[in-house]
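We now fix the convention by which a protein and its fold are recorded. The integers have meaning only within a learned vocabulary of local backbone shapes. The record below shows the convention in full.
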Amino acid sequence: MAKQRFRDVKQGKQTYPPKKKSTPKDKPSYASASSKLKAFLTDSFMLLMPIMYIVFYLVMGGREGFAAHKALGWAYILIPLVIVQTLFMYKTGQTPGYRAYNLKVIDAYSKKKPSLFIILFRNLAAVLSLFTFGWIIMFFRKDSKTLHDLLSATIVVTADEPKR
């Protein structure tokens, strides 16, 4: 590196110490809490509602049957939901809601698509996060990570624009 002259630094032609150029790989563009919330609501209507309808009316025989066996009913709802979300995320790193809002799940360390086990663990931890209000954490963190993101070492980032 060439020696810096005091006059150039003082006049702003050069900076001291020299700025380190950051690359896009160093700092991913974290998804905002609002876009993650919108993606969650979209997934709720696209994935959760059909499963709930099937469980309520076809499996449990109506609202009365579901009310009589709530724990079993919620197990019938949450297990298929976790499986479906895991399959979507393993295939593309996105659920339908994440795709609609251009979000993607990546591993925090390798910055690549997580393994099947990590995605399954993340989705199971998301159920825990839902019941323990671990999703509220994202409103207080700069990177908008939730409890299940912290436990599974994943990041939700803004995906690259699709090629057209």
